Amino acid sequence: MRVYIARRLLLTVPTILGTSLLVFLILHLVPGDPASVIAGPTAPADVVANIRTQLGLDQPILVQYWRYLSSALHGDLGRSILSRRQVSDEVAGAFLNTLELVIAARVWSLLIGIPIGVLAAARRRSIFDKLSMVTALLGLSLPIFWIGLMAMWLFAVKLGWLPISGRGGPIWTGAGLLHLVLPALTLGGVQVPALARLTRSSLLEALSQDYVRTARAKGLAERLVVAKHALKNAMLPVVTVIGLQFAGLLGGAVVTETIFSWPGLGRLAVTAILTRDFPIVQGTILVSAVTFVTINLLTDFLYAVLDPRIKYT
Amino acid sequence: MSSRTAWWTALAVALLLVIAGPRPTAHAQPNTLIIGQPTDADSLDPHKVSAVIAVERMYNLYDTLVNLDFDMQTITPGLAESWTISPDGKLYTFKLKRGVKFHSGKPFTAQDVKYSFDRWRDPATASPTRSRVAEVEEVIAKDDQTVVIRTKDRSNYLLFNLASGFASIVNSEAIKQHGANYGTLAVDGTGPFKFKEWVLRDRFVVERNPEYRWGPPMFKNRGPATLERVVWRVIPEDATRLFELEQGGGINVSRWIAFSELPRLRKDPKLRVVDYKVGYVVYLGFNMNKELVQDIHVRRAVNYAVKKDDIVNEIFYGVGTPAQGPVSPIVAGTLKDVGKVAYEYSPAKARAQLDEAGWKPGPDGIRVKNGKRLVLPIHAIAGYGYPDTLTLIQAQLREVGIDVEQVLLEEAAIWGRLAAGEHTVFAMGNPHSNPDEILMFYFHSRNRPTPNRFGFSDPKVDALLDEGRTNPDKKRLEEIYAEVQKKVIESAVWVPLWHPGRVMIMNAHVTGLRPHAVYDVGYHKLVDVSIAP
């Protein structure tokens, strides 16, 4: 197991390096110039050229990449081209905001989505099953920005229960917690239908297996059959999807962050890409790649917990 | 009571408290003005930025030697209580106010002015607005209260540039102390508000400077601001910003509300909608290096074929005025009888121009010459209303047989393309406080390839613009700028589209907030603003 972990961790190095080089090259190949964004539309050509020189943007791409890489390997991710802030500070702040949002969304989507899926499968073809699956289908079809705006209109504008938007403050303050509710409800809400449907279909498949028939033949209560025998086996594909979704969201829940003015990683990345703020883009990619690899690793370990037959060597 | 019952009871009580409690608005504190904006500033170091969104904050954190009054024409005192200009116009002597202090407590002296302007001019600083002080040769701190600026030549517009937010006076010690973090993690100015907190892409908070006693005379209140703090909140989504404003707690003023909402908001007694004018022009510019538009008939045809009233009314809900010339009508030096020389909307005249140039209608209605269809690629930023404007222009030009290919790009990409001269036509807008700020930038041949992206070159215009910068005779200046504007219109190198208006929408209990048009900032020093209980 230790060898396996070490190998997986070592594999993350080329993955991250490759991602970073690819992103660097793509960003430099598409037209765009951060110096002209700083300079604004009326700056003469010599002023723009001077900014470019001062920022080292006039150097060949590979020289620029090497400079970035050698600093990064020494733990210095550089400074934003536009704000001159430390990339590590900007990315870390945005990542923590997104982490809070995604964890809150994930927790509540799991608390709702999985029980709905389990109940729908256990009471197949019941009114509950039909109603929940139709609702889930409807939920899957609705765009997140619409759900977000409707939730905002209802809970914040009409009922006045929650603040409309913004970060509010740190999570441990009342204001911070209240500001988290609506974006987390929205982001989690759009994951519930997929989770419920996946849990239902996976559990239905498990319920048709021989070991379930055996369990029932032994005279076990249906509740125990579903909860102890079928559900654990049915969770493998669900865990995979949860892991992938989670990692994807940590890379940036852009739409939710935009609607609710949440200063997260997605908004940071989009702004940086639009302004060609290369060091910030690299920083967000680095964090996203590390997160993705880590979550995948954790998902693999969860498989072993769920299914003892899976062994990593 | 069992532990489970106790738990549920506690949860129910907590929920009830949340539901029954007042509407939660973490940002709403007493005597706080909250401004809503779609994007954040990058830095508040005046020598590192060019964005409007940074300048409006800088006016509140810093002071400038002089100010441009609300009339957009009069230069009024700032940190300089008086100034004289030598007869040859090359020496400016400023007498500075006494008793002024930076937020850090350091007294303000002439050395700070010298440091600020030298830093601004230094190529190593790489200031995007360095060209605004290109004519300055030397800055001398004669004594603590006297600064002398020597210019290479007489300059009619130096004072206008010294009134801009980029001319803010900084504290050299703070810049040395904070290094690259200055402007983002620390700011030290002499302005009416002090830097408090900046959570990027969320909020920027400033607090009242209680020692402020040196406010400019263009404001009623020259002492400490009435407001305790000002918060700039970043709310990228239009609908969210509107909700926050209407709800009356999340933000209490914004310049960034969708114009489509205006008819409804104007009737809302809880809000006040203030319309104001800015020196701004949006235009289509032709790149004369491209063969397709080298023929003046084609350029004239486009000028005749675009119905500007439709752009203002249908896309921007009537907020603004159709443009006839390149200089905003609110700026001194605008061509007074512009209507006599401007192109009126006339599809018939547009067709006649194209006929004369040999462009004949093709089978699909688009004109053809030597087997080539008349297709104009128009570059523009993919935002700020440009996509809708181009779509409307596309339909209007089609009426006379010109097709349009829209090339919409994000800001980071478009300037490079334009600098490389890839464009045939492009749409753009620019703020200006005086005619030099727009005519010199865009029509002097030495400013090719940027910002003169038209390849426009006319020795007579160059000579007039040079004279306009240095001739002190006001009557002559009027003649100079009138002639330049006429030549620009005659050459049809531009299609002036519209002069955008601006709208500031605030809660009715916000008083004393008067929009300022300089550099299109809207918010100058917020010293007169108060919030009624």
Describe this structure in words.
The complex is a heterodimer of chains A (313) and B (533). Chain A is mainly α and 313 residues long. In chain A, 76% of the residues lie in helices and 0% in strands. Chain A contains 14 helices and no strands. In chain A, helix 1 packs antiparallel against helix 14, helix 5 (87-122) runs antiparallel to helix 6 (127-141) and helix 5 (87-122) packs across helix 9. In chain B, the strands form 5 sheets. In chain B, strands 1, 8, 9, 10, 11, 12, 13, 14, 18, 19, 20 and 21 form a 12-stranded mixed sheet that branches. A 4-stranded antiparallel sheet of chain B has the order 4-5-7-6, covered by helices on one side. In chain B, strands 15-16-17 form a 3-stranded antiparallel sheet, with no helix packed on it. The relative contact order of chain B is 0.14. Chain B is α+β, with helices and mostly antiparallel strands and 533 residues long. Chain B has 16 helices and 23 strands. The longest helix of chain B is centred in the first third of the chain and has 18 residues, at 3-20. In chain B, helix 12 (386-398) links the parallel strand 18 and strand 19 (403-409). Residues 15-24 of chain B have low confidence and may be disordered. The interface between A and B is large, with 62 and 61 residues.
